[in-house]
Design brief:
The chain is built from six helices and eleven strands. A hairpin with a 5-residue loop joins strand 10 and strand 11 (188-193). The protein has helices at 2-13, 15-24, 87-102, 124-133, 148-158, 197-230, and strands at residues 38-40, 47-49, 56-59, 64-66, 74-80, 110-116, 141-145, 163-165, 171-174, 178-182, 188-193. The longest helix is centred in the last third of the chain and has 34 residues, at 197-230. It has one domain (47-211): Glutaredoxin. Helices cover 40% and strands 22% of the residues. The radius of gyration is 19 Å and the shape is globular. The protein is α+β, with helices and mostly antiparallel strands.
Length: 231
């Protein structure tokens, strides 16, 4: 009963999702695109989509966080620099705070992950000070640092962001204002310019659609189980 009430409140709070469900139905609801390379399974029946590779980093509290912490979570990832104070970086952090505020009620399922593009400069104390300065909810928003090679590899081959490379082909820095929407299976479902209000509005709507997608999938599974019980 409690879960049903939460879902009802969600649908009433977010009319766009309610509209999606009413106009498409359980069997034919709107789905977000998948990004990155994809391939078929050996039997050719299923598609394997690009996914974020495993990682192990340190957050602003000095705690180790890994990809496992995001199992079953929808999250928005981006790269940033705590020492940067450009107009663009300030716009992006303001928009991320808007995402945090909009989904504060869904803190168990929607998270934020900001990875530093300057691990040599952004120490754990620097990340902690930054998170406090921007009033981040550290229960749902992690600012992460770690091995430079790993951070850049995840940016390039995981989140599919633009990187600058050294002559030997090593990623040297991340060049992107993009926010990356990742689903519960670690697939990329959208890219958005974090400095553009309209694009972040699209992100907010897409998170709602993604939540609705999972909700409807769960309802379909329940319907199938109920039918089997009656057979």
């Amino acid at each position: 009963m409690k879960k049903k009430i939460i879902i009802l409140l969600f649908l009433l709070t977010f009319p766009s999702v309610f509209y999606v469900i009413l106009t498409t139905g359980k069997a034919n609801f709107i789905r977000l695109n998948y990004f990155g390379e994809k391939k078929l399974t050996a039997d050719g029946k299923d598609t394997i989509h690009h996914s974020i590779p495993p990682f192990s980093l340190i957050n602003q509290k000095g705690d180790r966080i890994t990809d496992k912490d995001y199992d079953g979570k929808i999250y928005v990832a981006n790269y940033f620099c705590a020492k940067c104070n450009t107009v663009v970086s300030r716009k992006i952090i303001a928009e991320l705070l808007r995402v945090q505020e909009k989904f504060a009620f869904a803190s168990e399922s929607v998270r934020l992950l900001s990875l530093t593009m300057k691990p040599d400069a952004d120490s754990v104390p620097a990340l902690d000070a930054y998170s406090k300065m921007v009033h981040a909810d550290t229960k749902t928003w992690s600012f992460a640092t770690g091995d430079k090679k790993l951070l850049y590899n995840i940016a390039k081959n995981g989140y599919l962001l633009n990187t600058l490379e050294t002559p030997d082909g090593m990623a040297d820095t991340v060049q992107s204002e993009k926010l990356v929407l990742v689903d519960k299976e670690k697939h990329i479902r959208g890219f958005y310019d974090g400095s553009n209000i309209k694009e972040v509005n699209n992100l907010l709507d897409d998170i709602k659609v993604l939540i609705a997608e999972y909700y409807i999938k769960d309802e379909i599974k329940k319907d199938k189980l109920e039918k089997k019980k009656k057979e």
